[in-house]
Amino acid sequence: MFEQRIFETDFRVALSEELDRRGLSIRQLSEQTGIPAVTLYKIASGERDPRLSTVKKIVAVFSPHHGKFIALIAAKFLLDENEGVKIEANGTAYRIKGYAANSLEDCLIVAVRARNDGAAGIICAPILASLIEKMVDVPVAILKPDMYAVLGAAESIAKRL
Prior knowledge:
Pfam families: HTH_3. By secondary structure, this protein is α/β, with parallel strands linked by helices. The protein has helices at 2-8, 11-22, 26-33, 37-45, 52-62, 76-82, 104-117, 126-135, 147-160, and strands at residues 69-74, 86-89, 92-100, 121-124, 140-142. It has 2 domains: 2-62, 434 Repressor (Amino-terminal Domain); 69-160, Rossmann fold (3-Layer(aba) Sandwich). It is elongated and about 65 Å long.
């Protein structure tokens, strides 16, 4: 995923890898983004650092958004069960898009990433909701475990005692 790769390495390297992976030339990327080819060549060569607006245009081409979605921040096992589920509210269809997180720091990072990806809202654990609401400008809802989940967890602990 290009968006994640740009945080793991130098933007120039991530751009080069993504162009190679997709078999795209800088000229083709220029046509798709509306960014002058000369600007992209300078970024690709390391002669110039990209502006945020330039990065956003490139990310939009490499990672287009397919419809409206609501972000679910949770552990991977929960995401596997809910990823791609579709719901409808007020005549608008939304899909659930998962953002895996295993620590508080991960949760905060993916909340901002979800907002930047265009999430219509975010679902997260109750302990995170108030903090995430202060960080993003989209509705935040809590994922409240039902009684069966609580009883299942209690049984799991009881078996280990």
